[in-house]
Design a protein that fits this description.
four-stranded mixed beta sheet; 7 strands; single chain; alpha+beta
Length: 253
């Protein structure tokens, strides 16, 4: 399979490969990298110069020469990626080739495809895109940048990671056999990362039930019930409670 002429990694350290050549080191310093990543994650729309200034000088008033500095950064970026791939003056937009590959987009598409496959009961088809989404999102979004736009995107990537774990656990439960271990790992990762997100507990309960270890499944439910009662004053959702009821009934049958 041929590689894309434009590839970018924005989860983890920035990697930019243009026409087969690594080019991220040619970007003009920290601001050049921030500008590049901001344009990459907003490539579906045009952004104004004022929005770019705000993205770069987010921690205080922009300096008097901000627009001139931005012009220099944009000129350097065009020289790195190709002038035809960054279009506009007052409003700017990346115009990347149809086969452009950006790891965050691959993760977003992958987790959506995995969730769709799980919903259709096609657990084998869910496996690869869910793993790809997890691989990218595990790196976190553009570490070291504390700008508000980056923090917002970081929360989005964290959610992609949690959804990938949910899809992996569900697919592993559907596949069974040696893949069950992946269900336990992803369920426990969910609980550790998002203790009030009930899906991790439900998936862990289903894992233990698949191993005929109903007592452990019931213990997981009790952990969730106590957490929600003590911290939020609420009970587990109807879906989790129904699973708990089925396990109790099966145990007493």
């Amino acid at each position: 399979m041929a590689h894309s002429s434009f590839r970018a990694q924005v989860c983890g350290p920035l990697v930019l490969r243009v026409d087969g050549e690594r080019r991220e080191d040619a970007l003009p310093g920290r601001q050049g990298r921030q500008l590049t990543v901001f344009l990459l994650v907003n490539r579906s729309r045009a952004v104004t110069r004022d929005q770019l200034v705000e993205a770069l000088w987010w921690d205080g008033p922009a300096p008097d020469g901000a627009q001139a500095t931005l012009s220099t950064l944009l000129s350097r970026l065009r020289s790195v990626i190709g002038a035809d791939r960054l279009r506009g003056k007052g409003e700017l937009r990346l115009a990347l080739p149809a086969d452009a590959w950006i790891d965050l987009e691959v993760a977003e598409w992958g987790v959506h495809d995995a969730e769709s496959a799980v919903a259709q009961g096609d657990h084998a088809r869910a496996w690869a895109p869910a793993r790809a989404a997890l691989h990218a999102s595990n790196r976190g979004f553009f570490p070291g940048c504390e700008a508000p736009w980056a923090e917002e995107r970081r929360r989005h990537v964290d959610n992609v990671r949690l959804r990938a774990h949910e899809a992996i656990a569900a697919a592993a439960l559907g596949l069974g056999g040696p893949e069950l271990a992946a269900a336990e790992r992803s369920a426990r990762e969910l609980i550790a990362a998002a203790p009030f997100r009930e899906s991790g507990y439900r998936l862990l309960m289903e894992y233990f039930a698949a191993r005929d270890d109903v007592a452990e499944a019931l213990r997981v439910y009790e952990d969730l019930r106590r957490l929600l009662r003590d911290e939020l004053g609420v009970s587990p959702s109807e879906r989790v409670s129904a699973l708990h009821g089925r396990l109790l009934n099966n145990q007493s049958a």
